[in-house]
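Consortium newsletter contribution from the modelling node. Members have asked for a concrete example of what our holo predictions look like. Here is one, prepared for the zinc ion complex that several groups have been discussing at recent meetings.
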Amino acid sequence: MLKQDCLLCKILGLLAIAGALNWGAVGIFKFDVIAGIYGEMTTVSRAVYVLIGFSGLAVLAGMIIKCPKCKQD
Ligand SMILES: [Zn+2]
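And here is the predicted structure:
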């Protein structure tokens, strides 16, 4: 899936994966990696959460409609 994607799709995909792994860490270790790095509910950590949320939406959209840049390659 990631191999033939364009750079933007790769970044969005990796961000979504990072978010999923963070939730895994929250579930298993009760540790929020993003909050650990950027502080709890700081502007930066919230921006990262928003970015991950947006990436999730983008990945979801990518399942329905193919990104025009990926089509070119
Ligand atoms: Zn793409």
